[in-house]
Specification:
The protein is an alpha/beta fold and about 270 residues long. It contains 10 helices and 12 strands. Strands 5, 6, 7, 11 and 12 form a 5-stranded parallel β-sheet that branches. A 3-stranded parallel β-sheet has the order 4-10-8. Helix 3 links the parallel strand 5 and strand 6.
């Protein structure tokens, strides 16, 4: 009799355990799916390249970014590259970069800071004259994820807008790239409220150390080996290597069947779904 009762208790206990385990598993799955569609409150933009020729996985999903009018890649079905440069200062390499872009009729986006416009106004004017988009990389290039007050966040963007207008006579188009890829969800929301589109990237490489410039071979290996349809490419205009290889790099991408798009085209038609 007691043996039967114990067996019944055991069976009942096992049943409860399995139900609870199932509920817990379901909760964990829903939590992980939700986490994949969101970003942490404060984070650095990062990528995981899982398959050659395919869009890498970002640490925030396209769906999450899209709700804040942000993105990091275009359609994986279209062999289009969106070429962008971050320009923190000028050290003599931008003219060669602009020459290569002009030779290939490629329109790029240059994300500039206040120092760049102040010290190189003629190059900024040349960018505009040759049809490139000049985007907002903030005035002082701070860690924007550490800025919680909307007024302080806005000031970093509007100061650059004002300087750009004083320099070119044109209003700055509202495309924003967080310095160093550091951002928070509130930053994305604030940028959106200011009418900005936040632009991350799906392909970059270590090209910003002046005394440790990559060789041509290293650069080509990264930039051709990891290229993919819809790539938003981030290069630095301060890189000697980039200035030296850009003509050939554009040729290699073209020979691989790629064309080049603009950020307005990316946001209007070609965001990754």
């Amino acid at each position: 009799m007691f043996a039967v009762i114990k067996r019944k208790q055991l069976v009942t206990g096992m049943g409860i355990f399995l139900v609870l385990a199932g509920v817990l598993a379901s909760v964990l799955i829903r939590w992980s799916e939700g986490a994949a569609k969101t970003a942490s409150a404060d984070t650095n933009w990062g990528l995981s390249f899982q398959q050659e020729g395919k869009t890498p996985v970002g640490n925030a999903s396209s769906e999450f970014l899209e709700q804040y009018n942000a993105c990091y890649a275009g359609s994986p079905e279209k062999k289009v590259i969106y070429l962008t440069f971050d320009a923190g200062y000028e050290n003599g390499y931008t003219p060669a970069i602009l020459d290569a872009l002009k030779k290939h009729s490629v329109k790029a986006t240059f994300f500039v800071v206040g120092n760049y416009i102040e010290t190189s106004p003629d190059l900024v004017k040349r960018m505009v004259k040759e049809g490139h988009l000049v985007g907002n990389h903030t005035y002082h290039h701070p860690d924007m994820s550490s800025i919680s007050e909307k007024a302080a966040f806005q000031k970093e963007l509007t100061q650059l807008e004002d300087l750009y207008y004083q320099t070119t006579g044109e209003k700055m188009q509202k495309y924003y790239r967080p310095p160093q890829g550091k951002y928070s969800e509130s930053n994305l929301r604030q940028a959106q409220e200011l009418g900005y589109r936040t632009v991350f990237w799906s392909l970059a490489y270590v090209d910003w150390y002046q005394d440790q410039q990559p060789s041509h071979e290293e650069a080509f290996s990264k930039l051709t080996g990891r290229i993919h349809p819809g790539a938003v490419v981030l290069l630095h205009s301060t890189s000697k290597t980039n200035a030296e290889i850009l003509d050939e790099l554009l040729t290699r991408w073209e020979n691989a069947g790629y064309t080049f798009g603009t950020l307005p085209e990316l946001f209007e038609n070609d965001r990754k779904s």
